[in-house]
Design goal:
It contains 21 helices and seven strands. Strands 2-3-1-4-5-6-7 form a seven-stranded mixed sheet, sandwiched between helices. Strand 5, helix 11 (258-267) and strand 6 (271-275) form a beta-alpha-beta unit. The protein has three domains: 3-86, SRP54, nucleotide-binding domain (Four Helix Bundle (Hemerythrin (Met), subunit A)), CATH 1.20.120.140; 102-286, P-loop containing nucleotide triphosphate hydrolases (Rossmann fold, 3-Layer(aba) Sandwich); 301-460, 434 Repressor (Amino-terminal Domain) (Orthogonal Bundle). It starts with a helix and ends in a 22-residue tail after the last helix. The chain has helices spanning 3-19, 24-40, 45-59, 62-65, 70-86, 114-129, 143-156, 169-182, 200-213, 228-241, 258-267, 288-295, 301-311, 314-325, 331-343, 347-353, 357-363, 371-382, 386-390, 397-407, 411-442, and strands at 102-108, 133-137, 187-191, 217-223, 245-249, 271-275, 283-285. Helix 1 runs antiparallel to helix 2 (24-40) and helix 5 crosses helix 12 (288-295). The protein is an alpha/beta fold. It binds guanosine-5'-triphosphate (GTP). Guanosine-5'-triphosphate binds at residues 108, 110-116, 145, 194, 249-250, 252-253, 275-278, 282. InterPro entries: AAA+_ATPase, P-loop_NTPase, Signal_recog_part_SRP54_M_sf, Signal_recog_particl_SRP54_hlx, Signal_recog_particle_SRP54_M, SRP, SRP54, SRP54_GTPase_dom. Its EC number is 3.6.5.4. One of its GO terms (cellular component) is plasma membrane. It is a peripheral membrane protein.
Amino acid sequence: MFEALSGRLSGVFDGLAKRGALSEADVMEAMREVRLAMLDADVALPVVKDFVNKVKERAVGAEVLESISPGQAVAKIVNDALIDALGGAGAVPLNLNAVPPVPILMVGLQGSGKTTTSGKIALRLKTRERKKVLLASLDTQRPAAQLQLAQLAEQAGVPSLPIVAGQTPVEIAHRALDTARREGFDVVILDTAGRLSIDEALMEEVRQVRAVTHPAETLLVVDAMTGQDAVNTAKAFNEAVGVTGVVMTRMDGDARGGAALSMKAITGAPIKLTGSGEKLDALEEFHPERVAGRILGLGDIAGLVEKAADTLDHEEGERLAKKMMAGKFDLDDYASQIRQINKLGSISGIVGMLPGMGKLKEALGDKDLDTSVLKKHLAIISSMTKGERKKPAIIKASRKKRIAAGSGTTVQEVNKLLKQFDMMSDMMKRFNKLGVKGLMRQGMSALMPKGMGGGPPGGGRPFR
Ligand SMILES: Nc1nc2c(ncn2[C@@H]2O[C@H](COP(=O)(O)OP(=O)(O)OP(=O)(O)O)[C@@H](O)[C@H]2O)c(=O)[nH]1
């Protein structure tokens, strides 16, 4: 999701970061591009207008334009505005604050994923919150829907209300609550009937069920792939019956993301959960700040820092950082760094969390930098002599063959490692010359040898 928007916004901020100084006209031009990118991503026009105006207002002041790295400062303003548009910082949890059994009413159009989502929520509450959940289908329009929910309940390992033919939705709702009270359930999920489009009969049915069940949550399920239709549906539902939260399904199939970005502003209802697949565990909490980070190619720095704090050896990290700063980093240090990285788990996972890391990988000519490559690097380094590890330049062709044989790799792989290490050393030398301030001004691209392309958006530094 958001791939296209993310690609275009990263491009805009790359451009800003490379400039160093920024004028008001530069910001205006960038905002024109942001506006087009958002419209192409199918974000509702009033939302785009409001978004761009807010960013412009905050970004053209002297405080931003004359700051040490205006590109980053503007990117931060955009990041904050994206978080706002997506609903504000932090996930909005399901409200289960009521006397049990707590009713959750599921509403939405036919085929939006309502029944599947009911099963997903039941499984989540059961496994994560140890709640005793009862699933009940109120869909009397389509008898097969009641069977479908019963099957999903079985998959989730959660009981479902026995099907009794001929009852109205209100009667089923009463029976569900009575059963839940009698049998000590914590939560009852009531899955209502869908319709092909919004009609008064559907809304009336939902109102009646609501009146007799007083749900703690009325969750509207919408299909992200329907774009602005999902937003219009949500607006209509909210006005007619009142919605406490939105579950957006099929996020896995929607590359544009316009519905998610328009939902809060247009309907006032927060997105609480998202579905990203047909399986019952494909349900996630919606964290606006994480989604904004992904849209801007900033990765999930907060998540990475949390993980690193738990796993890394800080003294070793500091020792390596000092050697790097002093330009004395050698292959032994590189090996130690690989061991630290390995502790963090999968490399692709880490790379996904790092801002602009994709570009650095490209610049290093290693698109498939992964754990197996790093393991090979470790094997190659340990086949070298101490002298070679301190000063790789002394390694001759005949030694490369022996090192390759000793590490079970090829001469090409040894050469590639040496070339990458050279490049890293070169980047460190540039960094030492530039200093932190210089780097902030010029961005990551200043570290790369000529012709190696630009750095990540916002100069590659997390700005939160
Ligand atoms: N890819 C993907 N498919 C989903 C997701 N959520 C639901 N589906 C699929 O969408 C189809 C329709 O889902 P249902 O749960 O039956 O939809 P519904 O809203 O209950 O439909 P009615 O009962 O007819 O009102 C099913 O094939 C689901 O497996 C999702 O997040 N991603």
